[in-house]
Amino acid sequence: MAHEGAFIIAADTVVGLGSRVLPKAETEAEARACLTRLAGRRHKVYSAVAIRAPDGRVVSRTVATVVAFARIEPAAIEDYLASGEWQGKAGGYAIQGRAAGFVDFLSGSYSGVVGLPLHETLNLLRGLGWRAA
Predict the structure, then answer these.
(1) Total number of domains in the chain
(2) For residue 76, what pLDDT band results from cuts at 50, 70 and 90?
(3) What CATH code is carried by the domain that includes residue 29?
(4) 3-class DSSP string for 73-88
(5) pTM of the prediction?
(6) Which of 12, 55, 79, 104 is catalytic?
(7) InterPro entries, from UniProt (predicted)?
(8) Angle at the Cα of 107 from the Cα atoms of 125 and 29, rounded to 5 degrees
(9) Which of 16, 75, 79, 107 could be cross-linked to 66 through a Cys-Cys bond (beta carbons 3.0 to 4.6 Å apart)?
(10) Which domain holds residue 63?
């Protein structure tokens, strides 16, 4: 193994609106469609993290966070699209940037919405024997 003794962490995030999973926006049209659907509504952001310990043990956790967007004027969506922050982002937005202004309510893990639920990740690592240097 190239990194003997390393912990390997993998994570991904998806946005769910009702029974639909929104895409990781790859085009401006996809991002616009996501933001238009999310405007004025609650949705869930699911972030999963998996960790492989040096001894081969694997643990994982999925964290769900409820996010509500305020109503968003079409001009605000267009301004956000022009920023490019939406590119490759689940649901077409990055909460850690300009999209924070769309958020009316959040219940759960902010860092999970960003893309890695830090509290849960640290707990998993500690459970596998990792200690901060």
Answers:
(1) 1
(2) very high
(3) 3.90.950.10
(4) CHHHHHHHHHHCCCCC
(5) 0.92
(6) 12
(7) ITPase-like_fam (IPR029001), Maf-like (IPR003697)
(8) 95
(9) 107
(10) 8-127
